[in-house]
Amino acid sequence: MSQPREELSWEGFGAASRELAQQIADSGYRPDIILAIARGGLFVAGALGYALDVKNLHVANVEFYTGVDERLPLPIMLPPVPNVVDLSGARVLIADDVADTGATLKLVRDFCSGHVAAVRCAVIYEKPGSEVRCEYVWRCTDRWINFPWSSVPPVVKRDGQAGDA
């Protein structure tokens, strides 16, 4: 029997990202830059960018997960790596879909440290085992999460074969 999962629909994501943006606005934090952790953080960063009226979005490509609850030993930042000169002195908001182990968020937050005026993290979900406690969290869960952008197989698989939709 499979474990129960957290299900997030596109409509639910819209409400979640708006509530997350309201938390950030209510805290008084005004980011100059939103730094998305690709891939799941791209959706979150885009939604927060619109809601918080921040047009300056950057991307950190980090590889860690290889499947459901399968990951590399350590997360690695893939090229193109953000240029710290572009982040220098800015108030940065790191956006991701989930803080699971927190290793990815820690990698990106540590990358920013010492270069930025301030850095905070915003996620849709945070899990109890995360080593990073995010400043802004929509929900806490210990379940695996089915996000609307990753719940169906790809249209084209990496090897070039058509997916089963």
Task: Outline the structure in words.
27% of the residues lie in helices and 33% in strands. The protein is of the alpha/beta class. The chain has a single domain, classed as 3-Layer(aba) Sandwich (Rossmann fold), CATH 3.40.50.2020. The strands form two sheets. It has a six-stranded mixed sheet with strand order 4-3-2-5-6-7. A two-stranded parallel sheet has the order 1-8. Helix 1 crosses helix 2.
Order of adjacent strands in the largest pleated sheet: 4-3-2-5-6-7
Q: Overall mean pLDDT score?
A: 90
Give the beta-strand count. Answer: 8
**Global morphology:** globular
Classify the helix fraction into a percent range.
Answer: 25-40%
Question: Residue ranges: pLDDT <50 for 5 or more in a row?
Answer: none
Biggest sheet overview: 6 strands, mixed
Q: Hey, roughly how much beta strand do the residues contain? A: 25-35%
Order of SSEs, N→C?
EHEHEEHEHEEE
Label the CATH architecture: 3-Layer(aba) Sandwich
For this structure, the CATH topology is: Rossmann fold
The first-to-last residue Cα distance is 24 Å
Radius of gyration: 16 Å
CATH classification class: Alpha Beta
What is the overall number of helices?
4
How many domain modules?
1
Q: What structural class do the secondary elements suggest?
A: alpha/beta
Protein name: Phosphoribosyltransferase
Keywords: Glycosyltransferase, Transferase
Organism: Pseudonocardia acidicola
GO molecular function: glycosyltransferase activity
